[in-house]
């Protein structure tokens, strides 16, 4: 029993420490998107951000409508223009993807937080839409991933 507890503790430490890295965009593009420009009226925009260092060694895949847009690392975000209407955002989790249905409104920025949680065998992730104020504050403290 002690051996199992030690292995579990070692796994938790591994998931909580370390630092994954992903390809990053230029500082200029990052700064421009942190001005939070409104998309054109025939488009919507989504900022998908991971604003914690929990699970620092984990990279988690993010998809929009089953299309992979990339992997997140601690304190990173993605920005994508999408068509107005219904979209399914998904993130990799321990036993399959966790999804969020997003009703993208024309001319509006949407903000989605990816939260990491520790699982039994590997870390999981969830997605939740947050307010504009909360999203802008979090994105301002992260960096733009490619």
TrEMBL record:
Top-level lineage group: Bacteria
Keyword set includes Signal: yes
Swiss-Prot/TrEMBL keywords: Signal
InterPro entries for the chain: DUF2846 (IPR022548), UCP012335 (IPR016596)
Signal peptide: 1-22
Residues of the DUF2846 domain: 41-125
Presence of the UniProt keyword Lipid biosynthesis in the record: no
PROSITE patterns: PROKAR_LIPOPROTEIN
Name of protein: DUF2846 domain-containing protein
């Amino acid at each position: 029993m002690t051996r199992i507890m030690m292995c579990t503790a070692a796994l938790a430490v591994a998931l909580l420490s370390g630092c994954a890295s992903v390809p990053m965009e230029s500082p200029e593009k990052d700064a421009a998107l942190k001005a939070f420009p409104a998309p054109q009226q025939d488009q919507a925009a989504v900022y998908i951000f991971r604003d914690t260092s929990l699970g620092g060694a984990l990279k988690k895949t993010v998809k929009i409508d089953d299309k992979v847009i990339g992997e997140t690392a601690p304190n990173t975000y993605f920005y994508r223009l999408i068509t107005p209407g219904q979209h399914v955002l998904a993130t990799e989790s321990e036993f399959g993807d966790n999804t969020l249905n997003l009703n993208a409104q024309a001319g509006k920025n949407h903000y989605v937080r990816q939260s990491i949680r520790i699982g039994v065998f590997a870390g999981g992730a969830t997605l939740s839409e947050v307010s504009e104020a909360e999203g802008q504050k979090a994105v301002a403290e992260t960096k733009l991933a490619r």
